[in-house]
Amino acid sequence: MLIRSRSWVARRGVVSxxxxxxxxxxxxxxxxxxxxxxxxxxxxTDSGLETELIYNQGVDLQQFAAFPLLDEAxxxxxxxxxxxGHAAIAAQADVGxxxxxxxxxxxxxxxxxxxxxxxxxxxxxxxxxxxxxxxxAGWAQTHRPHPISGCVGPRDDGYAPAMLMxxxxxxxxxxPQITTFADTQADLVTAMTxxxxxxxxGIAQAARNVEMPVVLSFTVETDGNLPDxxxxxxxxxxxxxxxxxxxxxxxxxxxxxxxxxxxxxxxxRTSGYV
Length: 274
Known about the structure:
The protein is built from 8 helices and 10 strands. Helices cover 37% and strands 14% of the residues. Helix 6 links the parallel strand 8 (188-194) and strand 9. It has 274 residues and is α/β, with parallel strands linked by helices. It has a single domain, classed as Homocysteine-binding-like domain (TIM Barrel), CATH 3.20.20.330. The longest helix has 21 residues, at 73-93.
């Protein structure tokens, strides 16, 4: 669900770091300078990795986290098969495919619960992107774009967060994972199941600090509002106001179309629904 898009231009190869220091990266990316999904063509996304693994394949995902599978031979096989299957569907339909990394839970809070420290999280986030680079290479003959997204998840529950962060705290919390993605072949970062604007603001600011395109996806209830009670339009406007409209576009996740069809975002520089 695309809510609003705008042109996004980054300077490839230059990544901000803490303070005023800047370093030159040599990472080559295909689409970081110009995201192809901002055009008018249709793109396939994957269909809910964790749900597929748990309910259709019977995989026991602790803390609903898929990233530990990257450290298992059988887990890697499952992940490759999952993404290759979607890439095959995209090829059959002659459309592009947005490859989303399996790192929704690969941040400090959830990582600690699963025994992953800072170094282990950096390693596994990189490995997640490397997997998608390999999958994309296998489907290069389709001549359709396959942008790679580093997936970012919320610090707390995406549907009923017990702890709300300030934008400043959210920026500091999410920056390590986003900085790792900036040093890989990821073309963008996508934050999903965000329940309130301040965390979205912090993520957007962290992405801007390292010059990564960012997409923000909000969780909405059956009335179309965020779990914190914000309207979708107000949440988008709040984030845009705080970040100089930095996000490339917005999405809605885990919602039936009837939940958000009445939402009016036209006054907030939206380009319509896709």
